[in-house]
Amino acid sequence: MIKTIFSLMICYFVFFSNAQTKEKKSRLSIGSGSYNFMEHGNVPYNKSSIAYNLEYFYGKKMFNFLKPFAGILGTNDSQFYGYSGLSTDLYFLRCKCFVLTPSLSVGFYDDGDGIRMGHLVEFRSGGDFTYKFKNNVRVGIGIFHISNAGMGYRNPGTEQLILKYQIPIR
Question: What pLDDT is recorded for position 39?
Fold first, then answer.
């Protein structure tokens, strides 16, 4: 995990340091999609389900490029995951309208009636790819992996594919 964070930081400084904007507004993200779409886990807990996602990205940056965020993820199988972490926005093209937002977070997971993850503490990695309109509203997709990094008695992991709508606030 440390290697991943370090690699992301190096890539950011080498390739994307001029891809920043002065965007300082916080944003709220709502989304829905497929949870456990690769159907990891053991029967009967390996089915996919519908995911609902709500996130808040803080406007202030740490170290001039990392933005803290917090979120909750729930499913129709009563799974629940509350998390917080760090993300960064990487803007592409002259219009800076295509945005890649990689993120890492840690949180607490409740199995509900779905996949048995093996630990209360789970890590989430992935990112969003969005289109940013002139009014700073973003629409796109997010793909994420949740895993306990081998801390639990089992570690099947799960992936989510979420359609997202993000609005600036404040």
Answer: 79
N- to C-terminal Cα distance for the chain? Answer: 33
Taken in order of first residue, the domains within the chain and their CATH numbers are: 25-169 (2.40.160.20)
In sequence order, the 6+-apart residues with CB closer than 8 A to the CB of 48 are 34, 35, 36, 37, 39
Cα separation, 119 vs 158, whole angstroms: 13
Where is average pLDDT lowest: 20-29, 105-114, 142-151?
20-29
Q: Quick one: pLDDT at residue 28? A: 97
Closest CA to 91 of 114, 123, 122, 65: 65
Range 1-30 burial, b when 16+ CB lie within 10 A, else e = eeeeeeebeeebeeebeeebeebeeebebe
* Residue-wise pLDDT tens digits, 68-88: 999 999 999 999 999 999 999
